[in-house]
C-alpha cells in the first residue's frame, strides 16, 4: 500500500484536512480507547501535522511538536493509524517518516515521546529507550521514551 505523505504547518491545513485529522484522532483516542479527554490542547497551532493519505482517506497521522512545548526535546504525538489500515505496515512507516522529518526539520539531536505502555516494544524497535517510570495519562498507562540521533 503506497501512502501519500504530506507535512504541513497548522495554518496550511485545509478545512477538509483538519476535519479528517480530528475525525481520525477522535475515532481512535476517544471512541476506540474509550477515553474522554481534551484533544484541543493548544499544541496543534505551533506543531507540524504529518498525514498519510490513501486515495482521499487519512489513514495515518502524527503531530510533530517543536522543542520546548511538550518537552525540552522535539516530540512526536497523537500517533494514530486508522483501525481499517492496521497490520499493513502503515504505522511503522508513519513513525519512521515522522522521526526523519522531526530530526531534519528541527535539526535536533533527540526526540521524546509519551508512549502508551502497550506500545513499548513497537517504539523500542524504532530505537526509543524508556526514560521514565510508568504514569497514568487520561487513565491510560504511559511512559516517556527518548530517541537519540
Q: How would you explain this protein's 3D organization?
A:
With 149 residues, this protein is α+β, with helices and mostly antiparallel strands. The protein has a single domain (4-108), classed as 3-Layer(aba) Sandwich (Aminopeptidase). It has helices at 15-32, 90-106, 120-125; strands at 4-9, 48-54, 57-65, 74-81, 110-116, 129-130, 135-137, 140-148. Strand 2 and strand 3 (57-65) form a beta hairpin. 27% of the residues are buried.
CATH-assigned fold name: Aminopeptidase
Report the CATH architecture: 3-Layer(aba) Sandwich
CATH class: Alpha Beta
User: Counting H and I runs of at least 4 residues, what is the number of helices?
Assistant: 3
Mean pLDDT: 95
What is the domain total for the residues? Answer: 1
Low-confidence stretches: none
**Percentage of residues in helical conformation:** 25-40%
Q: Which class best fits the helix and strand makeup?
A: alpha+beta
Shape: globular
Q: How are helices and strands ordered from N to C?
A: EHEEEHEHEEE
Layout of helices and strands, plus pairs?
Blueprint: E1 4-9, H1 15-32, E2 48-54, E3 57-65, E4 74-81, H2 90-106, E5 110-116, H3 120-125, E6 129-130, E7 135-137, E8 140-148
Parallel strand pairs: 4-5
Antiparallel strand pairs: 1-2, 2-3, 3-4, 5-8, 6-8, 7-8
Features:
single chain, 149 residues, alpha+beta, Aminopeptidase, 3 helices, globular
Quick overview:
The protein is built from 3 helices and 8 strands, in the order βαβββαβαβββ.
